[in-house]
User: Which sequence fits this backbone?
């Protein structure tokens, strides 16, 4: 299984210390969140230099931006587009049902799906 590692950049940490608190809140939320339309959270920690990181599922589909407009992007059928939109909407509805607001939904976030066996694809 491949994973994605999200690191906080040192340059951001040096400018705004509140970023660490926000990152830790994100980790806490991800620890409590399990849904088929949200990437799986595997863990978090700090590098030897103190830089915080988190480890999450790597969706083989890459980012939504890459899928729609990236190098080698294909014109997607409307059924695929509406399926992606429905997946995003289901994930967002679940997040909102927990009383959490996702403030930075963007096309750089991961795209993909899990098959019936739960494998990312």
Assistant:
């Amino acid at each position: 299984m491949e994973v994605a590692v999200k690191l906080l950049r040192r340059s951001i940490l040096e400018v705004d210390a509140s970023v660490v608190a926000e990152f830790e809140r994100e980790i806490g939320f991800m620890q409590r969140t399990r849904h088929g339309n949200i990437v799986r959270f595997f863990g978090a920690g700090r590098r030897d230099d103190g830089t915080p990181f988190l480890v999450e599922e790597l969706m083989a589909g890459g980012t939504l931006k890459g899928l729609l407009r990236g190098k080698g992007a294909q014109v997607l059928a409307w059924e695929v587009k509406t399926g992606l939109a429905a997946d995003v909407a289901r994930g967002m509805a679940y997040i909102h049902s927990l009383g959490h607001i996702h403030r930075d939904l963007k096309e750089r976030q991961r795209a993909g799906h899990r098959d019936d066996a739960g494998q990312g694809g």
